[in-house]
Amino acid sequence: MFANREDAGRQLVTRFETRQLCNPLILAIPRGGLPVGAMLARGLNAELDVVLSRKIPAPGQPELAIGAISEDGQVYLNPYALDLVGRLDDYLVSECRHQMAEINRRRALFRMAHPQSRISGRSIIVTDDGIATGSTMIAALQTVKSQKPKELIAAVPVASAERLQEVGRYCDEVICLQIPENFGAVGEFYRDFTQVEDHEAVRLLKDFNKPRQAAGK
After folding, report:
1. pLDDT of residue 63
2. Domain of 46?
3. Calpha distance 78→134 (Å, rounded)
4. Domain count of the chain?
5. Domain contains 41
6. pLDDT number for residue 184
7. Considering only CA atoms, which of 33, 1, 8 is closest in space to residue 157?
8. β-bridge mates for residue 50, sequence order
9. What does the mean pLDDT of the chain come to?
């Protein structure tokens, strides 16, 4: 059980204490991934940025993800949803359009706070507050991998064992602190799982990178 997302991020840092990373960049999946990512970036003296992906909910079941779409438009569908593709073509087109509109809205917000970071040739750690279906993480990893990082690591506080194995196919390494046998929802493993609002996520990104920007002048 984690006290909150910041506590989870601090605990993740310990898994990297002996690692040699190349110009590390932490890419957090907004919004819940940013408090985790900020603590991880601080502990590793790394740069912090975001990678945007959005889940594609099942029809009539907004909490169940059948897949996700990334900021470059790549779509990932969970294996159990592949049989639905032919029957849900119109729904998927409409939902992808809707989620891309939200990604574009968030991109505008976050890019005012911090310009997009270079990925190629660096150690990239993609993080979130947890993995349930894994779809948003996989969509994010697909986008990052296409930009040729030196190494690509997915690091999360808690995850479903079944989906963690699938996530591992899209990166060089997966690091997870807790892999419970009975996994219901990510929030069950936090005492404080208050929703992170847009303004807080933007503030975290902006405030974290201010000292780095000042040092570069």
Report:
1. 81
2. 5-210
3. 8
4. 1
5. yes
6. 87
7. 8
8. 28
9. 92
Is the pLDDT score of 85 beyond 90? no
Q: Would you say residue 217 has pLDDT above 60?
A: no
pLDDT digits (tens, 9 = 90+) for 172-194: 999 999 999 889 899 999 999 99
Nearest to 175 by CA among 44, 4, 30, 3: 44
Record the tokens describing residue 76, joined without a space.
């990932």
- Tell me the HSE value of 75 on the side-chain side, using a 13 A CA sphere: 19
Q: What angle do CA 132, 198, 196 make, to 5 degrees?
A: 45
Q: Is 130 left (phi over 0), alpha (psi -120 to 50) or beta?
A: left
Exposure on the CB side of residue 107, measured as CA atoms within 13 A = 15
Q: Say whether the peptide bond before residue 5 is cis (omega within 30 degrees of 0).
A: no
Q: Is residue 91 part of a domain?
A: yes
Write down the pLDDT at residue 125. 98
Say if 182 falls within a structural domain.
yes
Whole-number Å distance between alpha carbons of 109 and 53: 15
